[in-house]
Amino acid sequence: MQNSQEVVLASRFTDFDITLFKWGKHYRLYEKLGSHLMEIDGQKGTYFAVWAPSAKEVSVIGNFNQWSAGQHKLFPRWDASGIWEGFIPNIGQGTIYKYGITSYNNQKLTKGDPFAFYWETPPRTASIVWDLNYKWNDNKWLKKRKDNQNKPQPYSIYEVHLGSWKRKIYDGNHSLTYKEHAVDLVNYVKDLGFSHVELMPIAEHPYDPSWGYQVTGYYAPTSRFGTPEEFMFLMDAFHQADIGVILDWVPSHFPSDAHGLANFDGTHLYEHADPRQGFHPDWKTYIYNYGKNEVRAFLISNALFWLDKYHIDGLRVDAVASMLYLDYSRDEGQWIPNKYGGNENLEAISFLKEFNETVYSEYPDTVTIAEESTSWTGVSRPTYDGGLGFGQKWMMGWMHDTLNYFKRPPIYRQFHQNDITFSMMYAYSENFMLPLSHDEVVHGKASLINKMPGDEWQRFANLRLLYGYMFTHPGSHLLFMGGEFAQTSEWGHERELDWGLLQYDFHKGIQSWIRDLNQICTSKPSMFHYNFDPKGFEWVALNDHKNSVLVYLRKGENTHKPLLVVCNLAAKTMEDYHIGVPAKGEWKEILNSDDKKYQGSGILNDKKIKASTEPLHAQEYSISIKLAPLAVMIFEPLKLEKPKGNTTRKKKTTTIRSRKQNKNS
Question: Hey, how many other C-beta atoms are within 10 angstroms of the C-beta on 298?
């Protein structure tokens, strides 16, 4: 081969690849489409491939040819796949490029590469030739993840927007880099005891105020904070610190930017052609055509890409409700019913099922989580059982009811006890995650601390109470950054969190409370073993409306000590409050949000409490405790009471076998 930059006919596709692509079953398209460093006949260069079936001509333009279309034309494949491809010698790592596309009606379009692994930093919009090359050091984590995939595990999640968690105020107010986050953020999350972080979308996006939810570079971590390898370094650091990473993923819509997917080859290639199905009225963005095989392959390949190349541990899928309903945010006459006359988007439903089936088939030790805000049935039920196949679903009803309840002054809560107990009526209808996310602290909704009623002491006590109730409620839980130290202002994507608040005792107290809650909720099996199973929860007292008190048990297997959770939702103290308990012997208070180390009033049950044989609340025994005001208290028996059996060894064995049979029947 001559040492030139003429485009050479070359391909990374086999006939089988093309067949899978047309069927929508090629789930590793990132290995084929896009730009890839190659060597052909001893000549190094880059292979380019792009899907543009309605184009008349496709060229690679960039800093190597003065952005001149027509100099480096790609070849259309003969198999009607719509793929254009070619090899350009002497094009290497770091080359900046786009595709110059001439449409069927002679539009001249300039597009970024949908499969590029790296993009210029916004506001620049070109793609960059890049070879993903990183030596991972997280084998221990991946082995642990695989070994534990079928075991109950805690999910205590810290939601983070990388651009505003912490900024270099002293240096032009810039965000931390991926490598700087790998020190500061990883150490912080580790210290607070969260089991996972959830990153708001980091795929390349042109507009900062979209928070990453309007993506153009689906296969590239944003270059705002560094290179792809530096993002890998951050993921590696989390894993080495024993912290899982969940990534926000956005298959629901994409922006209309000229360099993006919209009108890609002069036609509605990725989006649905009919605006009643292909344009989102709220966000002014385009909606994918989920009925098109190649689009489904593009999206599912992208999901697997993050799990494969970046070792991501789970995907939280954004705006699932907007995908499920054809009439989402649309008035009558602005949407088209499905073939059965209903409002369900059958193509999107089919896509979500295929996405979940594929993820769990290829990476069974990861998790998918749906942000789904309606009463759609079976979001986290397996597809073989008629569900959508997600692993978990955000519990939006719990979030709304709970925040509305906590906004009320304590004196009125006795009239609204049902608001705080209602969630247990449907808590096991899905595998729920309880979210206090970024959406609850923006757009005039106020920060969490400023939603709380009362004077300063009461507001902080109420926030500790809210967190204690949330972390001990069945399900996994998520807290947005800043909430862990009671950020007072609403979140803003262009400024860092108000770290200066940690000089004040009330804010340090909230942070300490979160740290200790995490320690209990991630180390005590009764707090997570049956998170998604009714076996893990039992009401002890839920009808004490007058005193606004809730009491419940969190339970694991027979080898796990049950934990008694007492929530005093009123601002008064009670010295001698009687509660039923399931075990005899002595009980100990292991956590109390009114402890002075959290800036509470210090009303504790600091001595061992001997259970009385007097039954109460349908329990065989009872204890008497002090109720601290606006506080959560957690108690544990000092000894694990063994299951009762008959006096003879033979009868005892028979009894145990009988129980096992009943349990499994």
Answer: 25
Ranges of residues in the chain with a pLDDT under 50 are: 1-3, 645-665
Q: Tokens 């894993």, residue?
A: 239
The residue with tokens 């990861």 is 366
Q: Is 371 a catalytic residue?
A: yes
CATH number of the domain located at residue range(s) 157-413+435-475+482-527 in this protein: 3.20.20.80
Q: What is the CATH number of domain 15-128?
A: 2.60.40.10
pLDDT, tens only, 554-563 = 999 999 999 9
Handedness of CA 429, 430, 432, 437 (dihedral sign): negative
Residue of 318, 354, 484, 516 marked active site: 318
Is 15 in the active site? Answer: no
- Sheet architecture: strand order including 609-610: 537-544, 549-554, 563-568, 631-637, 586-592, 609-610
Share of the chain above pLDDT 90, in %: 92
DSSP string, 338-388: -TTS-SB-HHHHHHHHHHHHHHHHH-TTSEEEE---S--TTTTS-GGGTS-
Catalytic entry in 17, 159, 198, 371: 371
The beta-strand segments (E) located in 127-173 are 127-128, 156-160, 167-168
Which two three-digit tokens encode residue 487?
A: 């950020």
* Tokens standing for residue 450: 């400023």
pLDDT at site 164: 96
In this prediction, residue 67 carries a pLDDT of 95
- Tens-digit pLDDT profile for residues 483-519: 999 999 999 999 999 999 999 999 999 999 999 999 9
- Residues paired with residue 62 on neighbouring β-strands, in sequence order: 97
Q: Which strand (E) or helix (H) includes residue 144? A: helix 139-147
Q: What b/e readout covers 28-60, taking b as 16+ CB neighbours within 10 angstroms?
A: ebbebbbbbbbeeeeeebbbbbbbbbebebbbb
Token duo for residue 516: 């200790």
3-state secondary structure of 155: coil
